[in-house]
Design brief:
single chain; 99 residues; rod-shaped
Length: 99
């Protein structure tokens, strides 16, 4: 009589493809912070909303860098407030440092 033996060795799990999800969210949090900070100086009409979107996505995906994501959200909102203040002062979307 022949009996079949079952393989009781543990199976190797396949490695996940791409970077872990938390790493992507951490990168988004840092990018939101940097874009929000840069938006205070230049091109705030685009960088402000990008900072808001990336900060929100990072928080939704559960980033470990929650403080950076919140700073990105705050700076993105500040970018839009600066743009609004300059628009109301000059009645234009562009601004310059000259007098």
């Amino acid at each position: 009589m022949t009996t079949s033996t079952t393989d009781r060795r543990p199976r190797a799990q396949s490695a996940p493809s791409g970077p872990p999800r938390g790493t992507q969210a951490d990168g988004m949090a840092v990018a939101a912070f940097v874009l929000g900070l840069m938006g205070l100086l230049v091109f705030n009409v685009v960088l402000g909303p990008l900072a808001l979107a990336l900060g929100g996505l990072a928080l939704a995906r559960g980033t470990a860098r929650r403080g950076r994501a919140l700073l990105g959200l705050t700076l993105g909102a500040a970018d839009l407030l600066v743009l609004l203040a300059l628009t109301l002062a000059d009645h234009t979307v562009s601004w310059s440092l000259g007098g």
